[in-house]
């Protein structure tokens, strides 16, 4: 009788311990799933590099001409002016939403990383930035400087926040599944090559636009390989927009039988052609990498020439009243039908135009090749 009671007591204790073990591990599994729910989505993070096209406010706290933290910029953005040089959201905002991320990647300069706790990516883009360090305004982050900040993220921030999350296979696993978006190059022409007093670069001035395009591609390729060496594997790289169709240039020069300045478009197309070849080369030579080339050039050209086919009406005039520099003047009237305009100011499109580009790249077949972003994320 005594032995039976002892065995029953041992059995009860054993069952209790097993129950506690099961509950504890169930809770741990739930915690891991909660921290790893990004892994159940299309991508765990979005990392953004480039210029004002994708800037989220990295220039807000510095003294520079290239900052957009005032109305009417952000007039349609939920939180108001954010530093995005448009009416509302931009490409990274739509990409983040489509990928299932909780929030768009924040501007790295606006984040206090000691208290921030997200692992869904950062935005390093800086308005007026170029591929070459001398192309942007003072204070802006060149592409090289943006990658240096990302390197710090990889070495300091991510290990701290990923160390207890086994499902992502550490920093390398996280980065290999993340999306890397790059939009840059136009300022190397607008603020460097086309400026007579700034054509002598620190690496020697190329004598013509063909040589300059090759110089840019060489530098760009090195930067892309640097990102790869830091862990990036899935790239979305946009070419330079149809620069000659931007109001900042069309307002200065009227060409017969053309809505754009054709010589400027021909100039950047030399870069775009070389970029396409470089992307193909990197895709072949960098193991386990995948590259998408986004055709921003043709997108802008199509919007300007036939806005109605995209549900827009005005492909020529800016939505906001302009300063002499082509930026929005807060004292002037901003259009009310912003969703019908292609351009917000003289160099940037409206949220409506960005949305068309982002959605087409994410799930369409015309803007991004050889696959769309959704397919890339699922690789």
Automatic annotation (TrEMBL):
Keywords: Hydrolase, Lipid degradation, Lipid metabolism, Membrane, Secreted, Signal, Transmembrane, Transmembrane helix
Subcellular location(s) per record: Secreted
Protein name: Uncharacterized protein
Annotated CDD domains: SGNH_plant_lipase_like (cd01837)
Pfam families the UniProt entry points to: Lipase_GDSL
Keyword Secreted: yes
GO cellular component, one term: extracellular region
Keyword Hydrolase carried by entry: yes
Protein species of origin: Cannabis sativa (Hemp)
Annotated TM spans: 12-33
Main location: secreted
GO biological process, one term: lipid catabolic process
Family: Belongs to the 'GDSL' lipolytic enzyme family.
InterPro entries: GDSL, GDSL_esterase/lipase, SGNH_hydro_sf, SGNH_plant_lipase-like
GO molecular function, one term: hydrolase activity, acting on ester bonds
């Amino acid at each position: 009788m005594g032995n039976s009671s002892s065995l029953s007591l041992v059995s009860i204790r054993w069952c209790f311990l097993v129950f506690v073990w099961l509950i504890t591990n169930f809770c741990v599994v739930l915690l891991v799933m909660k921290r790893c729910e990004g892994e159940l989505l299309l991508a765990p993070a979005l990392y953004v590099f480039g210029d004002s096209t994708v800037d989220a406010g990295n220039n807000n706290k510095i003294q520079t001409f290239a900052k957009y933290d005032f109305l009417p910029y952000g007039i349609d953005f939920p939180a108001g002016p954010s530093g995005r040089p448009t009416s509302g959201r931009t490409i990274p905002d739509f990409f983040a939403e489509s990928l299932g991320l909780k929030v768009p990647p924040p501007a790295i300069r606006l984040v206090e990383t000691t208290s921030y706790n997200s692992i869904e990516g950062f935005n390093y883009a800086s308005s007026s930035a170029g591929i070459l360090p001398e192309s942007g305004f003072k204070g802006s982050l060149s592409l090289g400087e943006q990658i240096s900040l990302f390197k710090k993220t990889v070495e300091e921030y991510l290990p701290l926040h990923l160390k207890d999350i086994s499902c992502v296979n550490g920093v390398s696993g996280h980065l290999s599944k993340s999306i890397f978006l790059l939009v840059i190059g136009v300022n190397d022409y607008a603020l460097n090559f086309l400026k007579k007093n700034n054509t002598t670069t620190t690496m020697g001035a190329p004598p013509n636009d063909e040589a300059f395009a090759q110089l840019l591609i060489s530098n760009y390729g090195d930067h892309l390989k640097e990102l790869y060496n830091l862990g990036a594997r899935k790239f979305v790289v946009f070419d330079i927009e149809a620069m000659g169709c931007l109001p900042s240039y069309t307002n200065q020069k009227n060409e017969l039988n053309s809505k754009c300045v054709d010589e400027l478009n021909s100039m950047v197309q030399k870069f775009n052609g070389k970029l396409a070849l470089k992307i193909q080369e990197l895709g072949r030579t960098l193991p386990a990498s995948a590259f998408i080339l986004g055709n921003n050039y043709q997108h802008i050209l199509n919007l300007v020439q036939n806005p109605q086919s995209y549900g827009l009406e005005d492909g020529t005039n800016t939505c906001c009243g302009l300063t002499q520099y082509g930026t929005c003047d807060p004292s002037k009237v901003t259009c009310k039908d912003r969703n019908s305009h292609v351009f917000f100011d003289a160099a940037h499109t409206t949220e409506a135009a960005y949305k068309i580009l982002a959605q087409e790249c994410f799930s369409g077949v015309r803007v991004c090749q050889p696959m769309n972003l959704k397919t890339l994320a699922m690789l």
